[in-house]
Structures are given as structure tokens and as C-alpha cells.
Fold this sequence. Notes:
By secondary structure, the chain is mainly alpha-helical. It has helices spanning 3-12, 22-28, 35-43, 73-83, 96-99, and strands spanning 20-21, 57-58.
Amino acid sequence: MNSYTRIYEVVSQIPSGKVATYGQIAELCGLVGQARLVGYALFQVDVPTSPVPWHRVINAKGEISHSPLRRGADYLQRSLLEAEGIEFDQSSKVSLAKYKWRVEH
DNA sequence: AGACTGACGGTCT
DNA sequence: GAGACCGCCAGTC
Length: 105
């Protein structure tokens, strides 16, 4: 089983209305400190038809990561999150203290 | 084989 | 609070 497959499984466990950070996903996959790998893995999966809720994964700042390669995907991500009841502040950031996914408790 | 790049994160200044 | 640096792994040239 590839590390990527594991990443997809963990991401799929994120409940609706919650978000997780790249570092958090990496940690849950036993890939501590390899947040980049998570982002890299999700890059190959940003297909709308994918069963993986990639839109619930954001960076440690609570912001949606932008990239020239994504073009309008970031906008779509925000829309999907808002559709789940997640709010963005003036800086387009999500309150991690409020919406961050917790595996324990 | 060596260098570069990328949806990141933590630390230091 | 913002910007600069370094470390991580995988894929590509």
C-alpha cells in the first residue's frame, strides 16, 4: 500500500463541516513532518469525480493553499467548504480552533 | 546521479 | 504580523 493510498483514506475520514491541515493528515498517516507529501498526493486527486473530500484539507494557517497549477480549484474549494457551513474571515481564513477535525474525543 | 520544484510546517528575525 | 530559511519526500528533466 502506497503512502498516497493511506493519505486518501485518512482524508476520506474527515467529517463534513470539519477541516484538517496537511500536517495533521501527514501525522495520522505516520508521515510526521511530511506535510508536503500530503499536498503533493492530493494534487493528483483534485479531480471533481474523486470520492476523496480533498476540499477539507487546508494549510496550518487555516487558509486555502493557492497555486498557479490549480487555477480556479481554490475558489471551488472555498465554495464547497462554505456549503458545509464553514465560515471564512476577512482574510479568507478558517478558524481552526472552531472547525479543525479532531480524531480523539 | 545531481538539481529543481511543489496544495507545507516550524522556527527565527 | 510578515518574510526569510531549512527540512521533508516524490517525480521530472
